[in-house]
Amino acid sequence: MSQGAGDSRSLLLLAGLLSVLGLSPTSAIHVYTPREVYGTVGSHVTLSCSFWSSEWISEDISITWHFQAEGSRDSISIFHFAKGQPYIDDVGTFKERMEWVGNPRRKDGSIVIHDLDYTDNGTFTCDVKNPP
């Protein structure tokens, strides 16, 4: 990560946009995230994920967040919401620093990452599935 001249403690987190997931040509989910999110080392940041579907929100809705570290080709799953329950992965650097703040009934799949570190710099992707 390159450091700015003014503040060497700032981070740039990229929140990925997974624009459309569809199960058929007529029903799709549109997922919206900010293009860039900035945070400061030691603070917390909310990674917003909202979605829109022309279908009702199923009890089987799932939301998964993935993280791809800056300079890496690999993406890892860091959070999953399924069957009405949030599941924070119990391994990796985010395991004790992540908080679920979303509400699928309100079409919100947001998470908070606490105690930011330089190693959190990268791309985060929100993936939403709403099976019939």
TrEMBL record:
> Can you supply a Gene Ontology BP term from the record?
myelination
Location of the protein in the cell? Membrane
Give the Ig-like domain ranges: 25-132
Q: Where is the signal peptide?
A: 1-28
Q: Which InterPro entries match?
A: Ig-like_dom, Ig-like_dom_sf, Ig-like_fold, Ig_V-set, Myelin_P0-rel
Mind naming one GO cellular-component term on file for this protein? plasma membrane
Q: Which Pfam families match?
A: V-set
Question: What membrane topology does this protein have?
Answer: Single-pass type I membrane protein
- Report keywords, A-Z: Disulfide bond, Glycoprotein, Immunoglobulin domain, Membrane, Signal, Transmembrane, Transmembrane helix
Q: What is its main location?
A: membrane
State the superkingdom.
Eukaryota
User: Member of which family?
Assistant: Belongs to the myelin P0 protein family.
Q: Which PANTHER family match?
A: MYELIN P0 RELATED (PTHR13869), MYELIN PROTEIN P0 (PTHR13869:SF7)
What's the protein here called? MYP0 protein
Its ancestry begins with:
Eukaryota, Metazoa, Chordata, Craniata, Vertebrata
